[in-house]
């Protein structure tokens, strides 16, 4: 079949890959941040996971931030990062 | 990162676009919203082991398969029918037939801009795709646009990347919204962009191709693939193409772009994150005061995003309805205020659960208020947008928006 050279309509992406933060092996006494994306029940799920991280892995304390609405960008990311060793967040529904 | 399995593709794409393809998603079974909180807690119990592992064990390095770089030239079948299957498989198509974006056709659409083909117009969410002039022209070529359409498409893309538009949310939401492109100024009649009879319908190449090209850029460069990153529950037919011109010749008022500080002889596009239009049929009302009833009644609904998120619902007045207001010597601001004052929903029309939810999102309008009181369709009368479009007849339309978005107007200057 004859083929033609076409221009990809997808364009490029910046393509950068950031290295993951080093893991510490244990969650003991690590500060847990929750960034609630404010979708219904996200707070229930994330806060229960954090409660279990405290119970089962000795993590804590836990602090919670909430996006101003699911459809609005988070404005507190720097604050969450500064105050937490590990962060739990929700994506979409 | 936690989410539900039904939305895993979006979560993973979001992580990859931020340069973190290794970020682990711990997915629980969908749905999470709308279920008893006890069940939501049980889902947490099910996955906590995986959360602990994700936080304590080094993630596997990302595989080459998810590398985001994309070749800019691809060999494709020359046969127009075989090309349809190819375009669908590549994720380039909207399902309707597309034309081959050959180097020659894309070059023709770029025209005098060919030397600037690598110029970056915008970075588009959620993929953080780089919308160069060439990539935009390739989508215009797929969509069946002609060279003269390109500056309108480019201006629309520039407007969509304005942070006020909140493109990431518009692209990925479950809500049925898509950019509505409104064209003002002398370019509209010059390119044959229809603002007259059937302005929101079929039959005009410029409307069809410009709106479609914008949509394809969002899908292909922005990376909002239907059912994957584009999570629309239902979507709407305007997601194929959604573009019209304001009928400035038959409007009694200053057009939209002039209202926003541009000169009448400048050409502009305005993008709005819009639902499908809902018709307002009023053949009976002959005065401005009377006509407000049907328009406001159609606009005030309990299931609208605007009623609890704010934003700028759009009223498209047919020229005859616009003339009814003008005959009553109403300004556009008078029309907005009158609709806003009447387009209200009593608080007891919302379910108790929604009243609680909306009070959390917008306490000023929903918290601790008597149930006999009302809320308006949007936050203030100035947020209502009013334009004139269409042909003869006694119809207008209400176009609700996503809510957490602002429309953006830019000049067409390429």
Q: What is shown here, in short?
A:
The complex is a heterodimer of chains A (93) and B (414). With 93 residues, chain A is an alpha/beta fold. Chain A has two helices and four strands.
Structural account:
The complex is a heterodimer of chains A (93) and B (414). Chain A contains two helices and four strands. Chain A has 93 residues and is α/β, with parallel strands linked by helices. Chain A has a three-stranded parallel β-sheet with strand order 3-2-4, sandwiched between helices. In chain A, helix 1 links the parallel strand 2 and strand 3. The longest helix of chain A is centred in the middle third of the chain and has 16 residues. The model of chain A has no long low-confidence stretch (mean pLDDT 91). With 414 residues, chain B is α/β, with parallel strands linked by helices. Chains A and B meet through strand 1, helix 1 and strand 4 of A and strand 1, helix 1, helix 2, strand 3 and strand 5 of B. Strand 1 of chain A pairs antiparallel with strand 3 of chain B.
Secondary structure elements and pairings:
The complex is a heterodimer of chains A (93) and B (414).
Chain A: E1 3-7, E2 32-36, H1 42-57, E3 62-66, H2 77-83, E4 86-89
Parallel strand pairs in A: 2-3, 2-4
Chain B: E1 2-4, H1 8-17, E2 26-28, H2 37-56, E3 73-77, H3 80-90, H4 103-110, E4 120-124, E5 129-132, H5 133-143, H6 150-160, H7 167-172, E6 178-184, H8 187-191, H9 205-220, E7 243-245, H10 256-259, E8 268-274, E9 278-281, H11 288-299, H12 306-309, E10 314-317, H13 319-327, H14 332-342, E11 344-346, H15 352-361, H16 363-366, E12 374-376, E13 385-388, E14 395-399, E15 408-411
Parallel strand pairs in B: 1-2, 6-7, 10-13
Antiparallel strand pairs in B: 4-5, 6-8, 8-15, 9-14, 10-14, 11-12
Helix pairs in contact in B: 4-5, 5-6, 5-9, 6-9, 11-14
């Amino acid at each position: 079949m004859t083929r033609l050279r076409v221009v990809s309509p997808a364009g490029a992406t910046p393509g950068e890959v950031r290295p993951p933060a080093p893991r510490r092996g244990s969650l003991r006494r690590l500060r847990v941040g929750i960034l609630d994306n404010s979708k219904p029940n996200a707070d229930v799920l994330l806060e229960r996971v954090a409660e279990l991280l405290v119970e089962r892995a000795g993590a804590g304390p836990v602090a919670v931030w909430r996006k101003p609405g699911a459809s609005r960008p988070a404005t507190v990311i720097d604050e969450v990062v500064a105050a937490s060793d590990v962060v739990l967040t929700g994506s979409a529904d | 990162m936690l989410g539900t399995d039904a939305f895993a593709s979006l979560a993973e794409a979001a992580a990859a676009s931020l340069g973190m393809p290794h970020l682990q998603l711990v997915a629980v079974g969908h749905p999470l919203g709308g279920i008893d909180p006890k069940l939501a807690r049980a889902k947490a119990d099910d996955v906590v082991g995986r959360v602990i592992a994700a936080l304590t064990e080094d993630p596997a390095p990302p595989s080459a398969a998810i590398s985001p770089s994309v070749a800019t030239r691809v060999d494709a079948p020359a046969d127009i029918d075989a090309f349809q299957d190819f375009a669908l498989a590549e994720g380039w198509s909207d399902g309707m037939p597309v034309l081959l974006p050959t180097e020659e056709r894309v070059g023709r659409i770029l025209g005098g801009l060919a030397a600037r083909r690598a110029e970056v117009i915008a970075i588009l969410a959620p993929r953080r795709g780089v919308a160069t002039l060439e990539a935009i022209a390739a989508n215009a070529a797929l969509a069946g646009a002609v060279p003269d359409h390109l500056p309108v498409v480019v201006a629309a893309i520039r407007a969509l990347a304005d942070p006020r538009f909140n493109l990431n949310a518009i692209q990925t939401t479950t809500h049925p919204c898509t950019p509505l492109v409104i064209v003002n100024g002398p370019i509209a009649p010059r390119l044959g962009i229809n603002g007259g009879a059937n302005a929101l319908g079929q039959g005009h190449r410029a409307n069809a191709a410009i709106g479609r090209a914008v949509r394809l850029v969002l899908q292909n460069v922005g990376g909002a693939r239907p059912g994957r990153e584009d999570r629309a529950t239902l979507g709407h037919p305007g997601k194929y193409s959604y573009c019209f011109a304001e009928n400035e010749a038959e409007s009694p008022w200053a057009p939209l772009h002039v209202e926003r500080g541009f000169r009448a002889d400048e050409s502009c596009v305005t993008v709005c994150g819009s639902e499908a239009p809902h018709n307002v049929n009023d053949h009976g009302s002959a005065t401005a005061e009377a006509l407000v009833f049907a328009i406001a009644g159609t606009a005030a609904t309990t299931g609208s995003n605007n009623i609890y998120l704010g934003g700028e619902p759009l009223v498209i007045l047919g020229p005859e309805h616009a003339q009814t207001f003008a005959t009553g010597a109403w300004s556009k601001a008078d029309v907005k205020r009158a609709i806003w004052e009447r387009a209200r929903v009593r608080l007891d029309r919302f379910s108790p659960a929604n009243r609680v939810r909306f009070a959390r999102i917008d306490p000023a309008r929903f918290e601790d208020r008597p149930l006999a009181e009302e809320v308006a369709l949007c936050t203030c009368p100035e947020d209502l947008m009013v334009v004139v479009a269409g042909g003869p007849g006694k119809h207008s339309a209400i176009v609700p928006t996503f809510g957490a978005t602002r429309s953006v107007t830019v000049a067409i200057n390429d």
